[in-house]
Amino acid sequence: MPILHSIVHRIDKEAVERPATLSLAEAELTDSEPLDSLVTRLHDTLNAKPKGWGYFAEADGEGEPAAGLAGELDDYLAQRCDFTDFTHRLAQRLLEVVDAHLSVSGHLLVAHTRQGDTQYLSLALLHHRSGFQIDTALKVTPAFQLNLTQLSLALRINLSQWQGEAPSLQYITFLRDRGGRKLADDLAACLGIAEGVDAPGETRTLLKAFSDYVAHEDLAEEQSREKTEALIDYASEQASRGEPMTLEALSEVLDEQQPKAFYEHIRNADYGLSPEIPPDKRTLNQFRRFTGRAGGVSISFDSHLLGSSIEYDESQDRLIIKQVPKQLREQLKRRQE
Fold first, then answer.
1. Beta bridge partners of 195
2. For position 59, what pLDDT does the model report?
């Protein structure tokens, strides 16, 4: 992933009751292999975490970008200011958000990268964790390293999509974990970002459409399993790459012989789905299997089995297993002897 420009600033937060302070770098980072690896891992980490998807809000109906990050980013891309000056203003904007929500210091990494024909602007507040190392004298000494697994603030902007002709509501992805929703909301407000797509909601609707499609086609259990696995594999691959699912591509994945079948089912039933859907990994994982544990009973089964070899009677709150696994069946028989 070629890095076009990158820089690191420092935000210090010594105590909750004391205001955060900002130390600005005066020059960009020099490209290096460790830096490239860091930015790549940062992208991978963001892809794996719960995210919000959005776009720059507009100031009015004429399509002019709102004042804020959109305007400053436009100035930078139009070369009306350099990368360092652009990130100075960005860091100043973020200082208030960090001060209001976080109680630990960190380094603000901003990187302008290119992957294929697509350009991105990424930023993340990186925190540290303490550890140990063995020095050249074979002695144990303290060591500090960046903790990428504990990201609190991060976002990525698909610059090519933002500047492209096709309208989109999801060219910005930002960290939106359960424990940091207020931080994510304030970050979006600070930078002029409007949430455009409800990834969990859209993913749930897509999975409902898929379940309806399988039931309508009256597929055999093996076919149902294969299509479920194909959907999950495709969605998971897109999630790992930080890219949305497209309904037409998914339809082709599900049935090579009838590549438009699932797509036409969605359009005819009018589920209200967007042509591109950001996959929500938590929702996908829940769809793959049903699990539950209570009172010494633990149950887990593939979702495609519901309605075929497993039925749920909601009126009496009963789960009916039509095909008992052989090993379990043998244990039950021995118990009755």
1. 54
2. 44
Based on its alpha-carbon atoms, the radius of gyration of the chain, rounded to whole angstroms, reads: 25
Nearest to 43 by CA among 208, 138, 193, 157: 157
pLDDT in tens, 184-243: 889 999 999 998 888 888 998 998 898 888 878 877 777 888 888 899 999 988 888 888
Give the 3-state DSSP-derived string for the chain, with helices as H, strands as E and coil as C. Answer: CCEEEEEEEEEECCCCCCCCEEECCCCCCCCCHHHHHHHHHHHHHHHHCCEEEEEECECCCCCCECCCHHHHHHHHHCCCCCHHHHHHHHHHHHHHHHHHHCCCCEEEEEEEEEECCEEEEEEEEECEEEEEEECCCCCEEEEEEECHHHCCCEEEEEHHHHCCCCCCCCCEEEECCHHHHHHHHHHHHHHCEEEEECHHHHHHHHHHHHHHHHHHHCCCHHHHHHHHHHHHHHHHHHHHHCCCEEHHHHHHHHCCCCCCHHHHHHHHHCCCCCCEECCCHHHHHHHHEEEEEECCEEEEEEHHHECCCEEEECCCCEEEECCCCHHHHHHHHHHHC
Encoded tokens for 126: 């990186």
Which portions of the chain are predicted below pLDDT 50?
A: 59-61, 63, 65-66
Q: Which two tokens stand for residue 41?
A: 């891992």
Other beta carbons less than 10 A from residue 14's beta carbon: 12
Q: Count how many Cα atoms sit within 13 Å of the Cα of residue 290 in the half-sphere of its side chain.
A: 12
> What's the CA gap between 209 and 195, in Å, rounded?
23
Q: How many CB atoms are closer than 10 A to CB 246?
A: 16
| C-alpha distances out from residue 97 to 14, 19, 152, 191, Å | 16, 11, 12, 10
Q: Which amino acid is at 272?
A: G
**Half-sphere exposure of 27 toward its Cβ, with a 13 Å CA cutoff?**
3
What's the pTM? Answer: 0.75
Q: Where are the domains positioned within the chain?
A: 3-196, 200-286, 290-336
pLDDT tens-digit profile of 181-191? 888 889 999 99
